[in-house]
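In the laboratory, one determines a bound structure by crystallizing the protein with its ligand and collecting diffraction data. In a computational setting the workflow is compressed into a single prediction: the sequence and the ligand go in, and a structural description comes out. We illustrate the idea with alpha-L-arabinofuranose.
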Amino acid sequence: MKLYVLKERELGKRDPMIYGHFIEHFHRQIYGGVYDPGNELSDEDGFRADVLDAMRKIKVPILRWPGGCFVSSYHWKNAVGSNRKPMFDKAWRVEDPNTFGTDEYIKMCRKIGCEPYICTNAGTGTAEEMSDWAEYCNLPNEGEFAKWRIENGYEEPHKVKYWSIGNENYGFWEIGAKTAEEWGRLVAEASKMIKHVDPTTELTAAALADINWNIHLLENSGQFLDWISIHEYWDGIHNDNNYADYEQVMAYTANLNTSIEKVRGLLTAMQLDKRIRIAFDEWNLRGWYHPNVHTIRQGVTKEEYLYPRDENDDNTKYTMADAVFTACFLNTCNRNCDIVGMANFAPIVNTRGCIYTYPKGIVLRSTYHVFDLYVNYLGDIVLDSFSPKPPLMTVKNKAGKEVTVEQLDIVATSFSDKEGYAIAAVNKSADEEVKFSLDLCGEGEVVRYYISGNSTESYNDVDHTEVTIRREELGVFKRGMEITAEPHSVNIIQIGAANN
Ligand code: AHR
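The predicted complex, in structure-token form:
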């Protein structure tokens, strides 16, 4: 296969926030995950220092918090100050001690070096409660909430730029679900009030690839919004944990940009596509496993609805299928960098996250290394590229239907701050290597950074490492040079881009 890369034709500069993340008050993401006071690996503020180190290594640019479904009956005022009130979390049916609240979250973001991004309660909450939260975080000292922050020991505003109004309020499963008409009006009032508190905030709101919902949202509140939020989990195993196998996962890569194209189309039709960007602020190959709670029929016993959540912690399930899929989705975000400005891997720690914690350490799952490759080795300028005859492969999806997908998923990039190119090349085949030649004007040393594992089922666990980034030097670039990508591999090929 020949790949033509046109350095002169830049598709755009990708926003680093497409490599963002999400963390929710769910299972062991916060408590026992990133926040573990008393653990010898935790710092003076109770944050797991090894987890923060791992987050810094993949340059987490933005971290969405506190939910997710959790937020739709969460009241932020119970989790600041000295008088924390434990709450019964009606979304996930557990008690939250509220010892991790806004101030702890901001402190954690500062340690990571990432932007905070707060999703507000548009379920049981009000426009006033949401904007009070913005007062607490962003006003220097006016009003009771800024003064409360100062009283709590935070003289300087937290400067939270990114705010979401609500989370999935379109879904029957969400506490405080709304009709499209109700939603448009609530978002308009909430965003108006937040902008009155701090006009420098950037606001988004819960949306989906549905014209009716989005038209009501945008007609009522488009003038206040800077983003529109969508979510997607392709292997929807929330209730049965019935994992799609490698081949079935590859079938999902046939429609990674469907939601983006639908939302782009509506924004364009409403002439909002140059002002409102897409925040894909929850995405992952697989839905989180939490049976009998994200549904109409609630489990009665903890065996039915609570204890099964521990099965998300099975590290053997996070394989090269997750890594290959994740790389293909990040390629999709790069290709759509003109309108996708943020994407948040859901979540970052535990559950389906790329970092798994246990009392004595962490495991970097296969997906962690994909973020390491993309954040630290791929360029930030997305270039046009094409291949006249891309190799195809036919796989069967979960319904047993044949689906044809391109075997190789490629994105070509250059760098805004140095010479050279970096090509992301994902070989989806389970058992065939693929060779491709690079037709581009380049020079210098060629180095391939890649992960492939020993098989499609390779995974990392405590004292078990199969997936790590490897480095291969390929010599001096010559036009038409041929590259080989192993089966089930994620590759970043740098040309003349050695970290000079
Ligand atoms: O399964 C986790 C949930 O998925 C998140 O809380 C919610 O935002 C989405 O429906």
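The radius of gyration is 23 Å. Keep in mind that any predicted model is a hypothesis to be tested, not a measurement.
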